[in-house]
Amino acid sequence: MQSARIAISSPAQAIEVNKVLRATYLLLSATIGFSAICATVAIYAGIPYMNPLLYLVGFLGLYFVVHLTARSVWGLFWTFVFTGFIGLAMGPIVAIYLKINPMIVVQALTITASTFVGLSMYTIVRRTDFSWLGQFLTVAMIVILGIFILSFFVNLTPFALMISGFMVIVACALILWQTSQIVLGGERNYIIATISLFLSIYILFMNLMQIIGIFGGDD
Question: Which residues make beta-bridge pairs with 128?
Fold first, then answer.
């Protein structure tokens, strides 16, 4: 399906879009910083790898609470709790890659930042409608949950590269879709937009580390 360019219909709408964009990117920067601090604490404190089931329950539970409170001031509180939880869970994994080769983490961070900025700027400047990606993302999230559950019963290591590649595609699609939703007026809640973009960056970074590690012979 081809995407379409849609113009902002009025100055008032343009002001509202810019307001949501500013609030989203400001909160996104703060949550990324907070998550990075939590990950650093986890690394230096030697916090062990989080149990996958505990991670899944915590992730889904906090994600649900954020959405439930997104229209109140409590939404901000739970957004930081959620992103802090992600940081604590991410820390032990990042620590492993740092021990193997610090450049894996540096390269993953660089590519993640470049990809996010590039895709975001493209969508904002071109005002391209990527709403059609919503159906793909819905199916993709179901597939990801299925893969996660399947990993409890089957060794998926031989498929690690393929799975990570799929996750990178999903993350990029999520960036395009969510940014498009803001720019074209489909998303007015900056907390929801922030969580969506935060997850896209998180998924992209974690799976790029995996891919770079595999191609570097360090996995």
Answer: 5
20: CB partners within 8 A, 6+ apart: 182, 187, 188, 190, 193
Cα–Cα distance measured from residue 78 to residue 85, given in angstroms and rounded to the nearest whole number: 10
| Other beta carbons within 10 Å of 211 | 20
CA dihedral 41, 42, 46, 50 (to 10 degrees): 170
Measured CA to CA, the distance from residue 126 to residue 20 in angstroms comes to 17
pLDDT bucket at 153, cuts 50 / 70 / 90: confident
How big is the chain, counted in residues?
Answer: 219
Burial bucket for residue 46 (CB in 10 Å: 0-12, 13-18, 19+): exposed
Angstrom distance (rounded) from CA 82 to CA 65: 9
Q: For position 200, what pLDDT does the model report?
A: 96
Contact 88, 42 (CB under 8 A): yes
Find the farthest-apart pair of alpha carbons in the chain and give their distance in angstroms, rounded: 55
What predicted TM-score, i.e. pTM, was given to this entire model? 0.90
Q: What pLDDT digit, counting tens, does each position of 52-108 carry?
A: 889 989 999 999 999 999 999 999 999 999 999 999 999 999 999 999 999 999 999
CA distance 174 to 203: 10
How many secondary structure helices (H) and strands (E) does the chain include?
Answer: 7, 0
